[in-house]
Amino acid sequence: MNRLRTQPLRPLATLPRVGRVLAACAAITLAGCGSQVAGPATSHPQTASTTSPAATPRQRAAADAASIIADFPRPAGAVRTGLIASLTSPGVGMGTTDVATATRWWRVPGQPQARLAWVRAHLPAGFTWAGSAGSAAGGDSPTEPAESWTDIFALSPVPGVLPQRQLVVTAVSYRGQTALRTDAQVAWLPARSAAERIPSGVRAVTVTPVFGFNQDPRRDRLDHAFTVTDPAQVARIVALADALTVYPPGMHPCPADFGGVMRLAFLDRAGGQVLARFSAQYGGCGVVSVGIGGKTQPALSTYTTSGALFQDRVLAIAGVRWPHQPGAPAGMGN
């Protein structure tokens, strides 16, 4: 039985999550053939934040994965090899198919635990230890003996483009030395197509609270539905909605969902035809359900690129305050 040990989870919008899913990935394999003595690692990681924004999200992920694998800190005496039979799969994967990967194998002197400890002590700037996994022979500490060990090192996400970026290092005993498999894994968010954006011609936006499971008429009456017709405000809300990112695919742990929602109807005029509908969760994983032209579109995230909640930004643009957050239990609110 394998054991996975990770750091405490941070909020969904900021945390690169560690998964045990060995998913089929859109991969870029950068393994070498034969053997090669390693040179010194670079001391300044080239990250996706420096990649041209004109590139597609997939291209940015591929470039970032190649940069991460190049910045792996090689222990003294490390020799790059081709595929090692005992390390045919990454120790940890991501729970999504939209992932770019780059992989290399190494043979290094010493024991697996000691080699991983050296890597942890020599991480390039920006990387943080995010978890470890070991075989059944190991304990709960990444320094206890085991047949194999995996450490996960995370980089901060690139908001709206690359939600999860990590270097995975797996070590096993190998012919009196240690074999290492290094995997750079970078998830990307697909760009939204034109069909997934608010149609032109929106002249009004109606905003309605849905109070979910914790209804309290005394407090709920303070939050009222309203319609925005000012052209500048409508344009800002439409732009905000179009800037939301696709909700990351895969399985994610989520907070409790009490059913509170902000519903938005994008109209061709006040009281007119509905061109698009948004339903933005206050709880749970913060998912925005989208319907455009009567067709369901991919879900979006309620977190904007600035980190602020989509619903809060809508209220601020409209100059409206909802004193009680829809769906919030007693004692919670705005």
Structure report:
With 334 residues, the chain is α+β, with helices and mostly antiparallel strands. It has helices at residues 57-70, 112-121, 217-220, 231-243, 310-318; strands at 3-6, 36-37, 79-81, 99-108, 128-134, 148-155, 164-174, 177-187, 204-210, 226-228, 261-267, 274-281, 287-292, 295-301. Strands 1-5-6-7-8-4-3-2 form an eight-stranded antiparallel beta sheet. The protein has a six-stranded antiparallel beta sheet with strand order 10-9-11-12-13-14. Strand 11 and strand 12 form a beta hairpin. Helix 4 packs antiparallel against helix 5 (310-318). It starts with a strand and ends in a 16-residue tail after the last helix. The model is unreliable at 1-46 and 136-146 (pLDDT under 50).
Output the helix-strand order.
EEHEEHEEEEEHEHEEEEH
Strand neighbour order, sheet with most strands: 1-5-6-7-8-4-3-2
Percent in helix: 10-25%
**Mind describing the biggest β-sheet?**
8 strands, antiparallel
* Strand segment count: 14
What portion of the residues fall into strands of 2 or more residues? 25-35%
Helix/strand-derived category reads: alpha+beta
C-alpha termini separation: 45 Å
Task: List unreliable stretches of 5+ residues.
Answer: 1-46, 136-146
Specify the overall morphology: elongated
Number of helices: 5
| C-alpha Rg (nearest Å) | 24 Å
Arithmetic mean of pLDDT:
78
